[in-house]
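Friendly challenge for the regulars: who can give me the structure tokens for this chain first? No prize, just bragging rights.
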Amino acid sequence: MPPRRNVPSRQHSTRASVSTQGTDNTGDPMDISAPASERQYPGKRGATTPSRDMPPPKRTKATEEKEPNYGIGGSPNDPTFRKELKVEDLDLHKSYVKDFKLAAEAQKKLKGPRQHFKYDGPKPMTDITLLPDDWNSKEPDLDDEDWDAQIKRCKERIEEGLMTHAYEAKLKGFEEAKAREAALIKSVVGDSNELYSMAVIKRLATLMEIQEDLESKDDKTKTKTDQLPNVKALVKAYRSHELEWHEGLITYWSHGKKLCEPRPFDWDEFEAVNDKYEGHKGFWVEGSDVEAAGTTEANAIISFTPRNPGQLYYYNVACRFPNFAWWHELEFMWDTGSSLMTMYEGDIRSLMGPQIAPQGFIPGIHPYHGPRVLGVIQTAAYGGATISFEMVQIEVCLLDDHRKRMTPWIRRSVGMMMGLPPVPGTGGSPRLDDNWLRHCVYVGSAPEVSQALRFATSPGALHLPNRGTCMANPPPVPNWMPPHPPLWRTHIPPLTAPTPMPPGPTWLGQPPNMPRAAPGVP
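First reply, four minutes later:
Bragging rights claimed.
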């Protein structure tokens, strides 16, 4: 996570932007180069909060030179905070498995006590009102995926005559889950006596399916991605126990060669290693566990509504490739059930802009092949189907009504779907936004006609309509039923008016209205 270099403005307007230079109570700038907890204010020894009777803070070089705004409230043309790293200085041969095992043990989920219920009435007991108020429908003393223990407990509850209809249904589900797991182990291990953790077995099954999918592609697609050597090398490494699955740790691979020992994921490290090995193809991050990004507080709010009552929510996200001055807003669907951000291959040219012109290898992006690649991921879609996506690096942020950033530029991984994106409102598979925004802003809704979702960068700015008493509206009619004629309509104006982009540098065959290059971005 980048350091919190910006200090929120002391104005309390919900539309206020954020200043990157701090001020004391007198309005003069103060030195914000040190963390807030270590910042010293003049006037009193060790003072860490400004006071009206203190003399103005001493101006330093840090305050005289304007610092880029990496936080919120700035322009979308601002750069992303990065650490300058050299691959030669990284401890890629050091394993962090032992350190992470200790941390995982310390954070291990604590189990609750076993639930007991004495019932002497007629059996089976089907009156749910007789259960204790703190009764949990799950068994807090058992692991959720310990199928043998869960099956045994269900049989015990059935013998006790406790809610037998419910526990018979749960028993059937656990028995099916155990059978599926046994079939999965058989498909991976076969008749071998090799012992693998369940996490490795699941990962091997996924890699084998990805390998089968890649091998079915035509030669042009295989050459384009060049991921098959990585998948084969990973399967071999897991089977030989050279590689294990460690939650929170990753390894880098390039064209079938392992580049490091298990280590925590870091975007700056990824970019340095990826650039060294020209990772626009044939690059893989195994076990990626990217840390969720957060933001600092400020006062800004935005809302959006569904296209029609009861339908899905769509909103625009500013996107760009790292090291690129060009950015573009794309429409994504607000999908709280998705854990993967998706885009289309057709979006790559929109985000590359005129910088796709031939000019040699650009660090972070190749003029012909696309952005930095993280590997291939397999996801489960609705209905049980599985889909493989090539994962690439992207930066995203949310803009408010005044075209100011409500979030920093945040680096994310995105799955690339084949083909061109559908025209908004015409059907087709939408781009999915995954859950990045819920880590960055406050989200709220209220039972009102507009059905608006509101995003704010501080809890105080999240103003929801006050209905007095809780008079919830009935839910809208599902989309698969004919809509009822509306009794009345409310006009909802668009949130933002189109903002013309400032002119940019001259390019051969340049599209109109190219945005200016961001400060500090080549």
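The CA atoms of residues 172 and 343 lie 39 Å apart. The chain has a mean pLDDT of 72. Your move, everyone else.
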